Amino acid sequence: MTLFPAFIKNRLNGIEKLKNPSAKHIPAGVLLLLFDRDGEYWVILNRRTQKVENHKGEICFPGGRKDSLDKDLTETALRETWEEMGIDPRCVSVLGALGKTETTTGYEITPTVGLISYPYQFNIQNDEVEEVIEMPLSGLFLEDTRRDEAKLLEGEVIMQPAYLYENNMIFGATARILNNFAWLIDSRNLEEPA
What we know:
single chain; 194 residues; alpha+beta; Nucleoside Triphosphate Pyrophosphohydrolase; 8-stranded mixed beta sheet; 37% strand
């Protein structure tokens, strides 16, 4: 799959976004961070440590809840990525934002998509990040990587996407965000001209 930042930015700009946050959920911002390695785009994830309050050991995007000083959720995502991984916000080329994703733990996540140069020297915060995981975007489209998993939610069985990459299970909101991004960049989902 050949991708270009302008294509991703154009697709992100075409997303209809809800302006008002949900009153029931805490606003949060995460950074879906991409880099180009040898002509292929990769996404950066991290595994949370066992020291964090929630989601111990789970794979996620860098990010967190909105601070009162953050002007928007993109700034939240950039600030949190700086704090967690040492990625300078000035080194991130922001392409746009995906639609919001709600979690069962009470958050409404707005993913910002950005690019950094490769290689990048991370400076991870060891109390929050156990390891950095780099996954090729092509993995989002492979049958042996993507799967649907059943989840019981309020007495109802729902199917949700999950990804298995190099023995790393990616599920929950992170997998839903990756699935939404995969759908967005998949050229098969482009509208036919009228």
